[in-house]
């Protein structure tokens, strides 16, 4: 008997579920990337910072705190972008949708809210708690 690749892979999710989540991931990825581009159109944060510093020395203190806020946003969104890209790369893997810690299938409802989730709610909560 010839077993198909699909049958031996035993995906955690159905094809329909994976297709829905892949679409959600792509949409979310495009939205986050757009937000990042709007914040610094065509320039890196470092280039922008250098330019601002040279433009007006009196405002240096205020600009520094503005930049800190922007940098933290960019960092958060940057991390989300990377997580979304990683999830997009994994979406066809049999293990996509399975908790990386306990191996249980993550409920589809959770993945709809957070398609890049690596862990079930229980493991994610535990990890947050131990991380402090
Ligand atoms: Zn788990």
Protein described:
About 65% of the residues lie in helices and about 0% in strands. The model has no long low-confidence stretch (mean pLDDT about 80). With about 130 residues, the protein is mostly helical. It has helices spanning about 5-10, 15-40, 45-55, 60-90, 110-115, 120-130. The chain has 6 helices and no strands. The chain has one domain: DksA, coiled-coil domain (Four Helix Bundle (Hemerythrin (Met), subunit A), Up-down Bundle). Bound molecules: zinc ion. Zinc ion binds near residues 99, 120 and 122.
Explain briefly what this protein structure is.
This protein is mainly α. The protein contains six helices and no strands. The structure holds zinc ion.
Q: What are the salient characteristics of this protein?
A:
132 residues; mainly alpha; Four Helix Bundle (Hemerythrin (Met), subunit A); 6 helices; elongated; binds zinc ion
- Ligand catalogue: zinc ion
| CATH third-tier fold name | Four Helix Bundle (Hemerythrin (Met), subunit A)
Count of DSSP-assigned helices: 6
The succession of helices and strands, N to C, reads: HHHHHH
The low-confidence runs, each spanning 5 or more residues with pLDDT under 50, are none
Biggest β-sheet, characterized? Answer: none
Number of separate structural domains: 1
* Global mean pLDDT: 82
Protein structure class: mainly alpha
- Anisotropy-based shape: elongated
CATH architecture: Up-down Bundle
The helicity comes to: 55-70%
Strand content: under 5%
Q: Could you state the CATH homologous superfamily?
A: DksA, coiled-coil domain
| Number of beta-strand segments | 0
Distance between the termini: 52 Å
